[in-house]
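Changelog-adjacent note: as of this version, every example in the card shows the full chain rather than a window. The one below runs 123 residues end to end.
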Amino acid sequence: MKVRTDFITNSSSSSFIVARKNELSDKQKAAIIQFVEENFLGEKILSPESTEEEITTVIENESLEYDEKSIRKALKQGQSIYLGYVAYDDGEYRMSDLFQDFWKAFSKADNKNFTQINTELDD
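Full-length structure tokens:
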């Protein structure tokens, strides 16, 4: 008998039906960019305009000492610092929520070119 001791996945899926025109409108493209920025790129915690006190406080409070050199280098190059996380414990549920949240934002941007027909992603 074989016993599996490494990672085991419990694969499940949900289907959905949407109708849309072939080309995305400019409003829909903007909605995609805004959704990605808000949901996948983290929350802005520092910017090049941040004071030394703000930088030190954030690095200490967020336990980012290991990355301090890279953070400071990025800030000097004019980049902002974003912090986010991915919770793998509830991944399936979060993915369903992300799809539903995205479609709401997408429809709100241009509801003439996008229709949700069956987007209930609950198993």
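Structural remarks: The helical segments are 26-40, 52-61, 68-76, 91-109.
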